[in-house]
Amino acid sequence: MTANMKVVEGSYAVAHAVMCCKPDVISAYPITPQTHIVEHLSQMVANGELDSEFLTVDSEFSALSVLVGVSACGGRCYSSTTSQGLALMYEVLYNASGMRLPLVMNVANRAMGAPLNIWNDQQDSVGARDVGWLQIYVEDVQEAVDATLQAYKIAEDESIRTPAMVCMDGFILTHVYEPVELLDKERASAFLPEFRPAKILDPARPMTFGAFADPSTYTEFRYQQFEAQQKALGKIESVAREFQETFNRYYGGLIDSYRADDAEVVIVTMGSVIGTIKDAIDAMRAEGKKVGLVKVRCYRPFPAQALRQALKDASVIAVIEKDVSIGAEAGLVTDLKSSFYNSKLRIPIIGFAAGLGGRDITVKDIRKIVERAEAARKGIESEFEFLDLRWEIL
Amino acid sequence: MERSLLAPGHRACAGCAMPTTIKLVLDAAGPNTIVVSPTGCLEVTTTPFPESAWCVPWIHSLFENASAVASGVEVMMKRRCKDTNVIVIGGDGSTFDIGMGCNSGMFERGHKVLYVCYDNEAYMNTGVQRSGSTPFCAQTTTTPPGSKSSGNPRPKKDMPAIALAHRVPYVATASVAYPVDLRRKVKSALQTNGPSYIQVNAPCITGWTFDAGTMVEIARLAVETGLWPLAEWVNGELTGVKKIRRPKPVQEYLKVQGRYKHLFKKPDGGDIQKEIQTIADKNIAKYKLVD
């Protein structure tokens, strides 16, 4: 623990990072486990530490809609939400990205109802993978802090102009107290330029925002968004490197890996479960098993090329994810398979839905997955399964 | 006359009250204005990309969130110390129904935003379906008259009362047929320190079905029968009404619109006309429209 480190709650650390980004307007609606972030922010505003307008609105839908107006006027925005709140925002998510408004939001990942469940999985944001936002999934609180600052720089870049979600596992990262190096305000300000968009709502230069597009122009709007996400692949990496130069921390830009170089079995996953997986890998490595990890940090845009490169020497790949595409496997495993299909790589890929609705993923679970993956080298019996099903209650 | 802030060449129907309403509102507000509009006829007829009829900054986001977007615009204008008018212009679908949550939030938070509803009393953009604003026994495509139906079974929602319940400091009803009154109300609303709400009777030629040249006459008949009282509330107090010299029977208003033609054919049509007359009579008594 360095001198600058403090033991704080994850939500406070993120709120502090947001303060360093100096948003003009914060608008959010309370929902567990996101609420602490905006409570901390409202206290910062109340104390005069943060010069932002804080709007307490009537729903998550309104929260994000307010920010559409703010961003169109050239203001920097912040919101955070989770689960049902993100689902209620769904229509606005598409709208903000389609209008190229670079909002930034933390998603405190949580399960979707029914059944109602307030605990962590990633169904909420993985389910929103197609809405045109950038999505970064973080491993720990420090990365949540750092990715929040990075997200503004990426989203607001004139060549990207795309909203971004920084996804952090609810409770596991929002409510944990751990040592964190809080951002230095001045260094953060130097890192993140002021938001000065060229096109804003201004009576001196009247412009129309949100016109409707007929079949002769609609496709081109989508293409430009698609292109911006492709450009973001490079930007996310370069911003992560730039961040490293300023703050001396790096988590990988698009992806990261752990003991994966000579690994035969490679686990691919996102989020806070990575800590447990690293422990499991260390234990298995000590037993002589060649197991490694590739972490997907950026899920949208999907880093297909980086993943192919990182996984090309694996004998078998096991994807662990906290979401299900009910009726068709799950998000990450489907995207990974799709990115391999037209390449020369022929590596078995199997998927596991794990940690749904907050169920713990243990080192024992990881060992079980690795065993399954090893078996799959000889032939895949099951491409996708729910880990650790309790058959006795089914 | 100065150039209108809504350019010609928009694609609204001939005889539609909506563009006239917008022109009157913008005429009173002037160019230092940002307009937020929900999805609807207004949006699709004035902004087919890459064209726009708007000579003031204009933003459309979704059907039900114009008030929330306007809240954000207003907050940013204040933060930048700019005294810019922020006006929502939307139809009754977004105002009375789908946008009610956002409207309630904007009213309650006290944003200095003028909300103008051009009220044509049904979902016209999607093809004349019933809204919460559709009057009693009017025909729409989802409340068609038939052997078991006489049109919309419910009375019109009292939206000004809902605004007043939020303590909106300036609330008024207006009509496209009374342009001087409408412009004055817009100016009063914009001088209000807080939210304001103006509901403008705006006949729809395709939904109500009438001759294109009679739009203003029909809007005037709504006022002259007592079905559309012109009223104004300041800080919750009724401060003004437009008096009617001699109220006309509602039949004169009903008989010139296709949406009421079943009332002149069905056996119970006469009774329904009497019920609608009662609605007008109650308005006349409540607002003391006749001296």
Explain the overall architecture.
The complex is a heterodimer of chains A (394) and B (291). Chain A has 394 residues and is an alpha/beta fold. Chain A folds into 2 domains: 5-247, 3-Layer(aba) Sandwich (Rossmann fold), CATH 3.40.50.970; 257-393, Rossmann fold, CATH 3.40.50.920. Chain A contains 13 helices and 16 strands. In chain A, the strands form 3 sheets. In chain A, strands 3-2-4-5-7-6-13 form a 7-stranded mixed beta sheet, with helices on both faces. In chain A, α13 (363-376) links the parallel β15 (349-353) and β16. In chain A, α1 packs parallel to α7 and α11 (304-311) packs across α12 (331-341). Chain A is globular. The mean pLDDT of chain A is 97. Chain B has a single domain, classed as Thiamin diphosphate (ThDP)-binding fold, Pyr/PP domains (Rossmann fold, 3-Layer(aba) Sandwich). In chain B, α1 (17-29) packs across α7 (179-190) and α3 (66-79) runs parallel beside α5. With 291 residues, chain B is of the alpha/beta class. Chain B has an 8-stranded mixed beta sheet with strand order 2-1-3-4-6-5-7-8, with helices on both faces. Chain B has helices at residues 17-29, 41-46, 66-79, 92-98, 100-109, 159-165, 179-190, 205-209, 215-224, 250-254, 269-286; strands spanning 33-37, 58-60, 85-91, 114-119, 170-175, 196-201, 231-234, 237-241. The chains are: A alpha/beta (394), B alpha/beta (291). At the A-B interface, β3, α3, α5 and β9 of A face β1, β2, α3 and α5 of B. β9 of chain A pairs parallel with β2 (58-60) of chain B.
